[in-house]
Design brief:
Blueprint (H helix, E strand, L loop, with lengths): L1 E2 L2 E2 L1 E2 L5 E7 L2 E7 L2 H32 L5 E3 L10 E3 L9 H13 L5 H11 L15 H9 L4 H20 L27 H13 L1 H13 L3 H5 L6 E2 L4 E4 L20 E4 L2 H7 L21 H11 L7 H14 L4 H8 L6 H7 L4 H12 L11
Antiparallel strand pairs: 1-2, 3-4, 4-5, 6-7, 8-9, 9-10
Helix pairs in contact: 6-7, 7-11
């Protein structure tokens, strides 16, 4: 089990531990079980991140409090002494764009991946009509209207989430009297019949097509068999494969624009999942590959993968899915075959949800998980030997 690049290791005494470098010192976190050590490690790492966030908040408050105060006389009744009162700080009246830049630089730059920063800057553009509006004048109605005008369902969600984040910080720092995103209704979701994923028969045809030319289509096959994100697939190295225990470690994500930033999407993305039967047969050829080199480093520029996938689907009368929708296909098959939701979340690196959900998940037995691994190995997997 891995959390933000920190791996839980079994000690020769039988207990488990993880190590964290903090303030130049190595801190050992111990637990009687792997899950207990993981939870303690997560709590410690999250506290460090929270302390960083509080420090950034303190810096921003100090910056705002450095602005001058106005003293305004309070109106008095006859025969009463005139008493001066301290008025509200003359803080800067940020426009939406100015506040976004301030929020991004104060809270996110240096704390999240460059790809995440890039995502925020692309998302805010969908509120371009409100760039010059002062945040103290923005209303819930104005924000909701701007979001509902966005045609793409997924982008509506992204703008909604971004608004929630940056306006709650503005409200907490008393830059606005009311938070326009506080009761912002969640945007209308994509209709179920528009959510794309292969049906079971389509998935089988897709797998057969990939097997006919692994040199061209192997990355697609691995994504659909394991439910990986594109960046996770591109970051795979032989030292991530355990052919004895049939597991696949996911703790890196590759983006061609930021080749040195290999962090995964978030903490829950770091995981060790089962390596299913067909995946193992495909990846066995990399046993002698240099252990620390990416196995798909030479497949050509990753920007052309979506084009290649779309062409493959179109030529074979299959729904034209994106790479991420291959991951949706994996999740759909899991649900159709009755794989427990909590196990699916662990396999694909989704958050476990509430505290209660997390508590239940940590008690899922290995025997139950083994049963579902066997189910997956028998659903969408054919004998590769027949295709040799």
């Amino acid at each position: 089990m891995t959390y933000r690049g920190k791996t839980i290791i079994k000690h020769n005494r039988g207990n488990w531990f993880g190590r964290v470098l903090h303030n130049g010192k190595i801190i050992n976190i111990y637990g009687r079980t792997q899950v207990e050590a993981y939870d303690k490690l997560k709590m410690f790492v999250d506290k460090i991140e929270a302390d960083k966030l509080l420090l950034n908040q303190a810096k921003l408050l100090a910056k705002l409090n450095a602005l001058p105060l106005q003293v305004i006389p309070m109106p008095t009744m006859q025969n009463q002494l005139q008493t001066p009162v301290v008025a509200k700080s003359t803080t800067k009246d940020y426009t939406l764009k100015e506040w976004f830049d301030e929020w991004l630089n104060s809270y996110k730059v240096g704390n999240v991946r460059p790809t995440t920063i890039k995502g925020f800057t692309e998302t805010i553009r969908y509120l371009k009509k409100l760039y010059e509006t002062k945040i103290c004048e923005l209303t819930n109605l104005m924000l909701a209207k701007a979001i509902n005008e966005i045609s793409a369902y997924r982008m509506r969600d992204k703008v909604h989430n971004l608004s929630k984040q940056m306006f709650s910080v503005a409200f907490n720092n008393r830059l606005i009297e009311t938070n326009p995103a506080a009761n912002l209704p969640r945007p209308k979701q994509m209709p179920v019949n528009q959510q794309k994923a292969f049906m079971a028969e389509q998935e089988k045809r897709f797998i057969d097509l990939c097997l006919t030319d692994l040199d061209k289509y192997e990355p697609f096959l691995v994504c659909v068999l394991q439910g990986l994100r594109k960046g996770e697939m591109l970051a795979l190295r032989p030292n991530d494969f355990d052919f004895v225990n049939n597991t696949l470690r996911i703790d890196e994500s590759y983006d061609y624009e930021f080749p040195d930033d290999l962090q995964t999407k978030n903490a829950t993305s770091n995981r060790t999942m089962p390596m299913f039967a067909m995946t193992k047969q495909v990846l066995l050829k990399y046993a002698d590959h240099p252990q620390k080199e990416r196995i798909y480093a030479n497949i050509g520029h990753p920007i052309f993968l979506p084009v290649k996938l779309k062409k493959l689907c179109k030529q074979n009368n299959l729904p034209e899915l994106t790479l991420h929708q291959l991951r949706h296909t994996f999740i759909s098959r899991c649900h159709e075959k009755g794989v427990d939701e909590l196990i699916v979340q662990g396999w694909v690196g989704h958050a476990k949800g509430s505290r209660m959900t997390k508590a239940v998940y940590t008690h899922v037995s290995n025997d139950i998980e083994r049963k579902f691994i066997d189910i997956l190995n028998g659903t969408n997997i054919v004998d590769m030997a027949k295709n040799d």
